[in-house]
Amino acid sequence: MTARQSLFVGGSWVEPEGGHYEVIDPATERPVGWAPEASRDQVRAACAAAREAFGPWSRTAPEERAAVLARAAGLIATRLKEHAELAAAETGATLRTARALQVGVAAARFRRYARVEPAEWAVPPQINEAGPMGRAGVMGALAVRQPVGVVTCITSYNNPWANPAGKVAPALAMGNTVVVKPAPQDPLSVYRMAEALEAAGVPPGVVNVVSGTRTEVGEAAVASPDVDMVSFTGSTAVGRSIAEVCGRGMKRQLMELGGKGAALVFDDADLASAVAGIGTTYSFYSGQICTAPTRVLAQRGIHDRLVEQLVSYATRLKVGDPREPDTVVGPVISAAHRDRVESYVELGRKEGAVVVAGGQRPDLPAGFYVAPTLLADCGSGMRVAREEIFGPVVVVIPFDDEEEGIALADDTDYGLIDYVWSGDVARAFRVARRLRAGGVGINTVGRNMEAPFGGFKQSGVGRDVGSYALHAYSEVQSIVWPG
Question: Is the pTM value of this prediction over 0.85?
Answer without folding.
Answer: yes
